[in-house]
């Protein structure tokens, strides 16, 4: 700092009288330097936060189509859609104080993924970790660990799936039924329930058929705490939604 003060004095000695310098004395220079340093620090913090948030969203599994989904841009055309929207809002509002799982069931294109992504985006912005993954992708990652050359283990993915604040498993019911799949799902949901970590499921099946597919043990674990079951029992409204509005 002393070299800047010396430089200031030297400049003051040679600057013409009619030109007003930015810094009249050493204190002015010190104050300016402090202010600029603070602005620079804030800029670095903003950039670091932006990088961190970008990484968090990337690791969340939220696909590009749903990355901007929110409660505000969820289109409602009738009372059924208003009901699931309000229930989803209430779910995130109580997330910190009430352990609760959810199941969204209904036909394709009825808004299940939009509201699931809206829940995820809201929680991320409020400091929570989330992971949205299809059952097919989850099982594919785990089955690849059978390869001796794979650096990851089955336990790695079980642990990762069990630690996030909210895990949302999509497309349940599309996959082929297998005992191994049920075992994996049961392990994940059992671990999460034991740690009071919430789990969401999205399916085209209704609740009864989902119960038959997954079995009583898995559904029973989902009922721990307070289970939110929402039925999206209306036709697809994708033709009425402008993708640029999301």
CATH architecture annotation name of the largest domain: 3-Layer(aba) Sandwich
Structural class: alpha/beta
Principal-axis shape equals: elongated
Order of helices and strands: HHHEHEHHEHEHHE
Distance separating the two termini: 51 Å
| CATH topology tier name of the largest domain | Rossmann fold
Main sheet strand line-up: 2-3-4-1-5
Main sheet properties: 5 strands, parallel
How much helix is in the residues? 40-55%
Name the CATH homologous superfamily of the largest domain. Answer: P-loop containing nucleotide triphosphate hydrolases
Topology overview:
Elements: H1 2-14, H2 26-59, H3 79-93, E1 100-106, H4 112-125, E2 130-134, H5 135-144, H6 154-163, E3 166-172, H7 179-194, E4 198-203, H8 207-214, H9 216-222, E5 226-232
Parallel strand pairs: 1-4, 1-5, 2-3, 3-4
Helix pairs in contact: 3-4, 6-7, 7-9
What does this structure look like?
α3 runs parallel beside α4 (112-125) and α6 (154-163) crosses α7. The mean pLDDT is 82. α7 links the parallel β3 (166-172) and β4 (198-203). This protein has two domains: 2-57, no CATH class; 61-245, P-loop containing nucleotide triphosphate hydrolases (Rossmann fold). Strands 2-3-4-1-5 form a five-stranded parallel beta sheet, with helices on both faces. It has 246 residues and is an alpha/beta fold. 52% of the residues lie in helices and 13% in strands.
Summarize this structure as a short list of keywords or feature phrases:
alpha/beta; elongated; Rossmann fold; 5-stranded parallel beta sheet; 2 domains; single chain; 246 residues; 9 helices
């Amino acid at each position: 700092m002393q070299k800047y003060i010396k430089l200031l004095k030297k400049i003051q000695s040679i600057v013409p009288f009619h030109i007003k310098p930015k810094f009249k004395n050493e204190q002015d220079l010190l104050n300016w330097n402090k202010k600029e340093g603070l602005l620079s620090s804030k800029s670095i913090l903003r950039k670091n936060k932006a990088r961190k948030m970008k990484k968090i969203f990337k690791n969340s599994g939220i696909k590009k189509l749903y990355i901007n989904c929110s409660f505000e841009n969820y289109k409602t055309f009738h009372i059924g859609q208003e009901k699931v929207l309000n229930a989803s809002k209430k779910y995130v509002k109580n997330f910190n104080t009430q352990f609760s799982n959810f199941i969204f069931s209904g036909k394709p294109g009825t808004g299940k993924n939009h509201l699931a992504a809206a829940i995820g985006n809201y929680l991320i912005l409020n400091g929570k970790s989330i992971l949205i993954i299809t059952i097919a992708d989850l099982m594919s990652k785990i089955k690849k660990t059978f390869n001796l050359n794979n650096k990851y283990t089955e336990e790695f993915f079980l642990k990762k799936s069990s630690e996030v604040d909210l895990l949302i498993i999509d497309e349940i019911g599309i996959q082929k039924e297998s005992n191994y799949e049920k075992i994996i799902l049961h392990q994940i949901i059992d671990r999460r329930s034991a740690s009071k970590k919430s789990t969401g499921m999205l399916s085209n099946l209704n609740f009864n058929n989902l119960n038959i597919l997954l079995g009583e043990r898995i559904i029973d674990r989902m009922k721990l705490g307070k289970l939110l079951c929402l039925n999206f029992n209306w036709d697809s409204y994708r033709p009425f939604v402008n993708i640029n509005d999301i």
